[in-house]
Amino acid sequence: MEHDHESHDAGPGFDERAATWDDEAKVARAALIARRIAEEVTLTGTERLLEYGAGTGLVAEALRDSVGPITLADSSEGMRAVAQGKIDDGRLPGARIWSLDLSSEPVPVGESFDLIVTSMVLHHVDRLDDTLQAFHELLVPGGHVCAIDLDAEDGSFHGEGVHVHHGFDRDAFAARLRAAGFTEVSISDCGTVDREGAAFGLFLAVATR
Questions:
Q1: Model pTM?
Q2: Closest by alpha carbon to 163, among 124, 128, 129, 195?
Q3: Which of 20, 82, 114, 122 is the most buried (most CB within 10 A)?
Q4: What is the CATH number of the domain that holds 204?
C-alpha cells in the first residue's frame, strides 16, 4: 500500500518496486502532504503517529520532527524492508513496522494513536467503511485521521482492469467519515499527481475522533 499502487493487495508488484519507490516526485509530494497536515492539525511533537499503507514511510519521514513515536503499517514485505532500512540508518529512528491490512484483519489489541495518516491508499480498499471504523477504534478521543486521496475521476488514473475506487467525491467521503463516528470533518485541496501527462487532483480529509 501507499502512493500510486496498482491495487490494494497486489503483493509481489509492490515488493519488486519497493527499492526504487522513493523517487523525486513522491518525496516532494510527501513533503507537501506533511506541510498541509501541519496546517490543519495542531502538532505538539508528542503525537503517536500511525501511517497506514505507509509503503516506505515517506509521509512519516516528512513528519518525523513534528510528531512523537511512529508506527508504519503496510501489507507489502518489500515496502516494509525499505522502511526498516530507514529505521536502521536513522531516518526514522525508533519507528515500529507492522504488517497490517485493516480491511481484512482485526484492530491490534491494546494499541492507540493520536494521529493516523494514510496517503493514496483508501481508493484501493474494498471494505473502506470497515477500515474507517478501524481508524476510529485506534484513535484516542480528540485524535485525528488525515486521509489524502484522489478526487473523483473517470478511471483513467489506473486504467482498465484495475479494481479500485475511481477517486472519491469529497462530500460522499466526508459522509463516510461521519458514518464511521468521526466529527469535525473538513476536506481541502492537497495538490495534484501527474499520470501520463494528466494532472489528477488530491484532497486532504481531516476528521476528529
A1: 0.90
A2: 124
A3: 122
A4: 3.40.50.150
